[in-house]
Amino acid sequence: MTLPENLQIPSAQEFLEKLPNGHLGKRYGRNAAFLRDLDSFLRLWNLAGFEEKKREFECVGRNQIKWYSLCAELRAIVKIAEKLSLRIRGFNQVPPRQRIHKFPKDCDISAEIGGSEFFFEVKAKSAETSQLPAEHFREFLETLPWSRRVSIRRARSTSRTAWDATIQRLNEHVSKFESPIVPPPYSDELVKVSFSPRPGKKFTVTSMQPDEVEDIKKWLFGDLTDPKKIPIVKQAVSKGADFLVAQVPGWFEFSLLFDSIFSDISRIQNNFYLTSDQNINSLCGILFISASNKFALVYNRSFHIFPRVI
């Protein structure tokens, strides 16, 4: 969503202007939805943990996965406050169940309603983001005098060493040509890069392997073929969270997604659901959000708090 000419969000825009050059946040200065979410967060400056959370944004630099996760936290703050009608209490706070431990873990967001405090742990399904070219590969492409169209061949991100090898081979490939002569396409096991003579520094990622329903289910609840990978529901429980906030790709209809990943699911009203699926563990529920502004809350039927937060 591009920022309309007549819409100004000074606090968010000022925050982005103060970020160092090269910071990923610099790319979002005209994104109205992001600026509104950021502004909602900045208005909570007096809450516990605000400065620590703000520093996370300031220090993320060019780390795309971390940035994607922090943007998910902004969306979560807005949804918890506006859609669940909870009052945000703080950030990076330690839940009561963690306070007995020598090294307690904290949760991303705490919120309150009717005198009861709930803790939310936010996780983002970032496979699509991790499939973007490495930042230093993008920087190399920007030095070339042709437009670039990049297709990702691998389903997931890979090591810097592998990207370095691709850069070296691609550099050898294009060094044989000088503008306006356009090089033929380059390809290896990571990417395919096509060139065109159009002027300017146009860079387009044209394809990647999207997450499927089964990928999301494994991410949430675990993968029997990869037992060492801790599912995010279990991660949230281990941190003492009451709710997991799970950001997933927005092209799924949430109702159809839920039919596929939960053993049983029933809609209470609008965007609120109930399940007795044991995979939800001891969580009170899972709040699903997407970058396209969708949300839905799935409650654990074993708990009886849901009438208080709808």
- Classify the helix fraction into a percent range: 25-40%
- Total number of helical segments? 11
Order of SSEs: HHHHEEEHHEHEEEHHEHEEEEH
Outline the biggest β-sheet: 8 strands, mixed
* Beta-strand segment tally: 12
Mean pLDDT: 86
Please give the radius of gyration in angstroms.
22 Å
| Structure class | alpha/beta
Q: Spatial order of the strands in the main sheet? A: 1-2-3-8-11-12-10-9
Identify low-pLDDT runs. none
CATH class of the largest domain: Alpha Beta
What is the CATH-assigned architecture of the largest domain?
A: 3-Layer(aba) Sandwich
* Strand proportion: 15-25%
- How many domains comprise the coordinates? 3
Q: What do we call the CATH topology of the largest domain?
A: Trna Endonuclease, Chain: A, domain 1
Shape assignment: globular
Q: Compute the separation of the termini in Å.
A: 28 Å
What's the layout of helices and strands?
Blueprint: H1 10-17, H2 32-42, H3 50-59, H4 64-82, E1 87-93, E2 107-113, E3 116-124, H5 127-130, H6 135-142, E4 147-152, H7 160-174, E5 186-187, E6 191-196, E7 203-207, H8 213-221, H9 232-238, E8 243-247, H10 254-261, E9 266-269, E10 272-275, E11 285-289, E12 295-300, H11 306-309
Helix pairs in contact: 1-2, 2-4
